[in-house]
Structure formats: C-alpha cells, structure tokens
User: Which sequence fits this backbone?
C-alpha cells in the first residue's frame, strides 16, 4: 500500500486561456510520523517540500515497529504515539479511497463529454488540494 502513496501530488501542465500552467506538487497531508518513518525529504518545488518514498523501509518488521505492533500485528498500547500513527494511517487510507472515487466520477464525466479533459485534470488537482469543486452545467 505504501508503494502507491506519493509524498506529494503530481505536477501536471494544464491549458488555460492564457497558455499553460503547472499545477500540483502540494503535500498529501500525510502525518509527520509517516513522513519521518517512510519518506526521504527532498528539495522544494512550488514552495512545497517534496517527499520520496524510501524503498529500504518497506518491510513488515519495520512497519510493525513504526506502528507499535507485535509480530502478530496486534497493537501493544492503544494510547501510545505509535498507536496514534496507526490511526493516522487509517485516516490516510480513507482519504485515498475518497480521492479515487472522485477521480473515477470525473473520468466518467469526461468520457460522457460533460467535461473537457482539461476541466477534468483541473478538478482532480483541486480535489487533491481539498478545495471545493465547482459543478458546471
């Protein structure tokens, strides 16, 4: 699952009335514990620190230690900071599911012709930034 989570939104180029514009690069609002545990801090792009997944930390024993679990996957202390990191991970999973649903709905609208591909791309980027989408038409 962590392999699919990028530290930052993709940077995309969209067409506007006055030319093209780069959008994206914002943080995914991951908890600091997750960023510190699984990501490498990189340079700033669009005034946003870019995080890259550290593949050397993608193993089950390390994952268990970060989230305060024993070898069978049970949480040792529900009030500990590591248990709170587990809560953070669950919130992240719910956000990812919501974003995927929004993206599928926008893709369907583009396929049906009710939105242009540029509008779809722009609205996907807005959804990732947690801005309210404007419904057209």
Assistant:
């Amino acid at each position: 699952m962590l392999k699919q989570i990028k530290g930052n939104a993709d940077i995309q180029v969209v067409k506007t009335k006055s030319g093209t514009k780069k959008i994206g690069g914002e943080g995914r609002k991951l908890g600091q514990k997750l960023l510190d545990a699984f990501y490498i801090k990189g340079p700033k792009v669009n005034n946003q620190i870019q995080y890259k997944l550290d593949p050397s930390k993608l193993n089950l024993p390390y994952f268990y230690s970060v989230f305060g679990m024993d070898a069978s996957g049970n949480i040792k202390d529900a009030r500990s900071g590591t248990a709170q990191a587990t809560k953070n991970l669950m919130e992240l999973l719910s956000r990812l599911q919501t974003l995927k649903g929004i993206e599928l709905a926008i893709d369907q609208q583009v396929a049906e012709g009710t939105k242009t591909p540029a509008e779809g791309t722009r609205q996907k980027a807005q959804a990732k930034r947690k801005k309210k989408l404007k419904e057209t038409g």
